[in-house]
Amino acid sequence: QVQLVESGGGLVQAGGSLRLSCAASGRTFSTYTMGWFRQAPGKEREFVAEISWGGGNTYYADSVKGRFIISRDNAKNTVYLQMNSLKPEDTAVYYCAAKVAIAANYAYWGQGTQVTVSS
Question: Which SS3 state, helix, strand or coil, does residue 8 take?
Answer without folding.
Answer: coil
